[in-house]
């Protein structure tokens, strides 16, 4: 129980930090063009074990689309470095078998022209639940009358 509480606190801290960073982290080093990395998932809600698409976009602060390499950090592990061309790549990713919010990070390392940057995303993994509908309340709502005013079109 204590481990779960600590993980929850850690997750809240990560969410706060991601919010402060704006889910993107531009960086700069002497002589390098700063970059911003963005990572997002399609769809953003998946069930445990489902394969989904990760979109990785890197942009230079001069609006260029850099080449370089990136890797994904998730569940305490990092993937191998993969090439990114013209600032965009898409990969298939498998959702963890544990329901809840999962923090995904894309780390970009540029070439001699572009600096490194990181992008963050929170992936919700869970089983969708259909909402319960109170049929009597729904029927009552539908029986409400609506006043409609019709304006005449044209002269008179």
Would you mind describing this structure in some detail?
- The chain has 156 residues and is of the alpha+beta class.
- It has one domain (23-142): Immunoglobulin-like, CATH 2.60.40.
- It has two helices and ten strands; from the N terminus they run H-E-E-E-E-E-E-E-E-E-E-H.
- Strands 1, 3, 5, 6, 7, 9 and 10 form a seven-stranded mixed beta sheet that branches. Strands 2-4-8 form a three-stranded antiparallel beta sheet, with no helix packed on it.
- A hairpin with a 7-residue loop joins strand 9 (100-109) and strand 10 (117-125).
- The protein starts with a helix and ends in a 14-residue tail after the last helix.
Structure keywords:
single chain; 156 residues; Immunoglobulin-like; elongated; 3-stranded antiparallel beta sheet; 10 strands; 7-stranded mixed beta sheet; alpha+beta
Describe the main β-sheet briefly.
Answer: 7 strands, mixed
Helix content: 10-25%
Strand content: 35-45%
Shape, principal axes of CA atoms: elongated
Secondary-structure element string? HEEEEEEEEEEH
Structural class: alpha+beta
Kindly provide the name of the CATH class.
Answer: Mainly Beta
- The strand count comes to 10
What fold name stands as the CATH topology?
Immunoglobulin-like
Q: How many distinct folded domains?
A: 1
Mean pLDDT: 78
Radius of gyration: 23 Å
The name of the CATH superfamily reads Immunoglobulins
Total of DSSP H or I helical runs spanning 4+ residues:
2
Architecture, according to CATH? Sandwich
Q: Which parts are unreliable, with pLDDT below 50 for 5 consecutive residues or more?
A: 18-28
Please report the distance between the alpha carbons of the first and last residues.
75 Å
């Amino acid at each position: 129980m204590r481990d779960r509480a600590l993980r929850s606190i850690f997750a809240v801290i990560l969410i706060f930090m991601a919010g402060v960073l704006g889910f993107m982290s531009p960086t700069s080093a002497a002589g390098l063009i700063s970059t911003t990395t963005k990572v997002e998932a399609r769809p953003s809600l998946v069930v445990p074990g489902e394969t989904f698409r990760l979109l990785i976009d890197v942009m230079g602060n001069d609006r260029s689309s850099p080449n370089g390499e990136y890797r994904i950090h998730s569940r305490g592990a990092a993937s191998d470095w993969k090439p990114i061309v013209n600032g965009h790549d898409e990969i298939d990713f498998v959702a963890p078998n544990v329901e809840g919010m999962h923090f995904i990070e894309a780390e970009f390392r540029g070439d001699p022209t572009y600096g490194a940057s990181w992008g963050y995303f929170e992936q919700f993994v869970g089983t969708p639940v259909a909402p319960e509908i109170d049929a009597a309340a729904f029927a009552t709502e539908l029986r409400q009358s609506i006043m409609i005013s019709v304006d005449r079109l044209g002269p008179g």
